[in-house]
Design a protein that fits this description.
With about 200 residues, the chain is of the alpha/beta class. The protein has 6 helices and 8 strands. It has one domain: 2-Layer Sandwich (Nucleotidyltransferase, domain 5). The two termini are about 30 Å apart.
Length: about 200
């Protein structure tokens, strides 16, 4: 199992410091969110990095991708804890845009985290004067946890994975459950369609 980590660092004064891990389930094509970590300010950034690094090592993950916040300090702090920190070539709006099709195709399995779901629901698509779309949180909202979660999900997709339609995933789930010969005890993975933003919000689905 290959896990992917994405972090949204913070200096410990205003924003939360978040981390997410995800992997791709080769059996049914789902992109699964495995771990969420969130530290609220005020906190000691060095202690949070050490805590997050320890959690990553439990999954045998030694590389994390994140934004360019205080880049040199973040890189050094993770390096001291045995983790390689790489800056993302995408900003959070681009990450949200790439994650959106995963939700609309039913390819994502989320953790039941109220903060994450609230942040995802609060995302809004805005059109800039030049015509370029931007996805971000609404006034007074936050998206630190959503950024890490979607960043990890996008990393876990991989370049070699083509589109998988929702109906195909449903057939795979049914086939796997039927194989167990326990039709009365079938346990389906949640697709969280009820947790997605409304038509007026993130996307038109």
């Amino acid at each position: 199992m290959h896990y992917f980590a994405f972090a949204d660092p913070s200096g410990g004064r205003q924003d939360a410091f978040t981390l997410a891990l995800a992997h791709r389930d080769e059996q049914d094509g789902l992109i699964v969110l495995d771990l969420l970590k969130r530290s609220l300010p005020p906190f000691n950034p060095a202690e949070v990095v050490a805590e997050f690094a320890g959690a990553m090592k439990e999954y045998r993950v030694y590389e994390v991708v994140g934004d360019r916040y205080s880049a040199e300090w973040v890189v050094s702090a993770f390096r001291e804890n045995g983790i390689t920190y790489k800056t993302s070539d995408k900003d959070r709006s681009q990450i949200f845009q790439e994650a959106l099709p995963l939700f609309t195709r039913g390819q994502v399995e989320l953790l039941d985290d109220k903060v994450l779901l609230s942040e995802l629901r609060g995302l809004e698509r805005r059109t800039r004067p030049m015509g370029r779309d931007m996805i971000t949180h609404g006034p007074g909202g936050n998206d630190d946890l959503a950024n890490s979660a979607c960043g990890a999900l996008v990393l876990a997709v991989g370049k070699d994975m083509g589109p998988v339609e929702y109906e195909s995933l449903e057939r795979r789930r049914f086939a796997r459950n039927d194989w167990d010969h326990h039709p009365t005890r079938m346990k389906d993975r949640p697709d969280h369609r009820e947790d997605l933003p409304s038509r007026r919000r993130w996307g038109s689905f």
